[in-house]
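Posting this for the archive.
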Amino acid sequence: MTQTLLVNRSDFADVALVNAELQELAEGFIRLSIGPWALTANNITYMAVGDMIGYWKFFEPMDYGIEMDRSEKQQWGRMPVWGYAEVTESKCTDVPEGTLIYGFFPIAQSFDMKPVKLTPIGFQDGNDHRTELHPVYNGYTFVDKDPSFAAHRKLQPVLRPLFTTSFLIDDFLADENFFGAEQVLLLSASSKTAMGTAYCLKQRGNTKVIGLTSEGNKSFTESTGFYDEVYTYDTITDMNPDIKTSVVDMAGNGKVIGDVYDHFEENIVYNCMVGKSHWDGAPPKTPTLGAPAVMFFAPDRIKQRLKDWGGEIFAKNLAARWLPFCDSARDWLTLEESHDVTDVLKTYKDFLNGDVGPSKGYLFKI
């Protein structure tokens, strides 16, 4: 038997830890022991946009020996997380037992994959229902074959997926000359994706970097040094409304972005909608003045840059920002690790309720 966490797709606070029966491992497959993996606010975003982008499709309950009927399958889902896993059983000669891999997993004790499209550093999962899904989320890395995992190994699940998005946002905005903006305003500025974006923008130095966050997170956000100025959701009107501004919205809160549009009006020259850290906030309204929101989907930008640069140059450019950012995390991030499912459930509820401080990172294994 193996355990896995299910989430009610219409009520994220309703979760269940259930047992699934392990079947005999099929030919060509590997069996993984999952963990450690990271829990971040980004995982909540995966669920909030799960139907729109397809995150619920990666690890559907009925496909892994969990007893439930079709209506229950539609009600429950498995939230994906980023992390490590070790091969404990293998019927794939190219991926032996003991291999450590990194990638996208369900919250579970074990998981079966079918490695296909193998390269010297990784593979794609060939499970039938996953072959049509985006390859960025369907790709797995052999940790010991990829030198980028040599340093900051524990930080990787917590920061790497988020920072990759940060790097791509910065690259995209710079490629578009910031849409003529004099400053970039990041909402939910204490989120790790926003901090990574601010870090990249600050290193580039082409534009002013402004953060917007809660009163409780303002001091922390300022202390990182990634922002030129930091404001709170209650002090939006203190910003100069006459500056052409590109917005990067990690919050997805309709009231907050509505207040930003009301303040800057036509001086919002671009609104890059990235995340939904305020997952239960009101949906945004269509603005009457200022550029409308455009969704940013990081995997599509990766595909474009791999085409433009090739894999080697992409990795080099990413590493030039990633490694120094990880070095900076020593000053502002504290990692907490646990193998206790009670801690998993508590931390998950804290993320849902917005009660997790920005200076924490969480690694788990159940």
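The chain has two domains: 2-150+334-364, 160-299. DSSP finds eleven helices and 18 strands in the chain.
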